[in-house]
Amino acid sequence: MKTKLIIATLGLASVLSFGASAAAHLVNSDEAQNLQSMGSVSVTAIGGAPMDIRQKLAAKAEKAGASSYRVTELTQGDHWHATAELYK
Question: Using CB atoms within 10 A as the burial measure, which of 10, 61, 72, 87 is most buried?
Fold first, then answer.
């Protein structure tokens, strides 16, 4: 349940983030069905917030040439860890 809340918070934070410089944008599972997968990326950070993780995922997605990404895993313990599927 906590993971779902964190993912929802991450999604909401990305919608509210108008100043993000990364060209890749976050999509939900319904939107992802119409896109072509091109692999995945993951990030790990000590401390920070969901928004920091989203920005790191977006930067990695952009560097990989993806136009979109979808968060598939998000955990928080001693550190944050997130994995995202990349799409063309």
Answer: 61
Identity of residue 20: A
**CA–CA separation, 52 and 37 (whole Å):** 24
What structural domains does the chain harbor? Answer: 2-87 (3.30.1660.10)
The C-alpha atoms of residue 12 and residue 78 are separated, in whole angstroms, by 23
Length of the chain: 88
Residue keyed to tokens 């599972």 = 29
pLDDT value at residue 18: 42
Cβ-contact 48, 16 below 8 angstroms = no
Element (H, E) at 7: helix 2-16
Amino acid present at 1:
M
